[in-house]
Amino acid sequence: MDYFISPVTEEEIRKEKQKARELRKTQWWKRKRAEGKCYYCGKEAPPEDLTMDHIVPIVRGGKSAKNNVVTACKECNTKKKHSLPFEWQEYLEQLKKK
């Protein structure tokens, strides 16, 4: 199944990254990190080892909003890169089969 995603301008990316920086300063985000768990693999990690990940990446049209950001361990965040949820889910399923 192909999905059409309209191109995201550099200006839109810049604005969303700024929103993400502001969101990281909020109590909401601090509480999310304090839970100490990666959204993707479920591994526990110290809050300082968790990163903010956009479920739908900014470069693919995602927004820096509470319903689109999760805590992720650095390993998952690095591997996920700019994948959309269905693409990342396929990857996770492959890992389970191995």
Structure description:
By secondary structure, this protein is mainly alpha-helical. It has a single domain, classed as Orthogonal Bundle (DNA Binding (I), subunit A), CATH 1.10.30. The chain has four helices and two strands. A two-stranded antiparallel sheet has the order 1-2.
- Uncertain residue ranges: none
CATH architecture grouping: Orthogonal Bundle
Query: Major β-sheet, in short?
Result: 2 strands, antiparallel
Overall form: flat
Helix proportion range: 40-55%
Annotated CATH topology: DNA Binding (I), subunit A
Strand percent estimate: 5-15%
Estimated structural class = mainly alpha
How many angstroms does the end-to-end distance come to?
25 Å
How many beta-strand elements?
2
The CATH C-level class name = Mainly Alpha
Nutshell version of this structure?
This protein is mostly helical. It has helices at 10-24, 27-34, 74-80, 85-97, and strands at 50-54, 69-73.
Features:
98 residues, mainly alpha, DNA Binding (I), subunit A, two-stranded antiparallel ribbon, 4 helices, 2 strands
How is the secondary structure organized here?
Elements: H1 10-24, H2 27-34, E1 50-54, E2 69-73, H3 74-80, H4 85-97
Antiparallel strand pairs: 1-2
